[in-house]
Predict the 3D structure of the following.
Amino acid sequence: MKSVLCWGLLALTLAACEDTKTKEYYLDHPEAIAPDLAECQQAGKNTYNCNQASLADFQLKHSKPTNTP
């Protein structure tokens, strides 16, 4: 039982080392969305970054263009 707990804590620690990116990061860097989403899909990941990239992608594709003079 202790080994399962230790392995679980190790997995959480390693997962926390991922460089997290927010939706705002992806909105400011739209060129990063496609490669990150492709990596998520290929690896079958569902991480915070994957979710944030997906949200930003959706927002960029479905936002109404603004009419600026």
Summary: The CA atoms of residues 40 and 50 lie 6 Å apart. The chain has a mean pLDDT of 84.
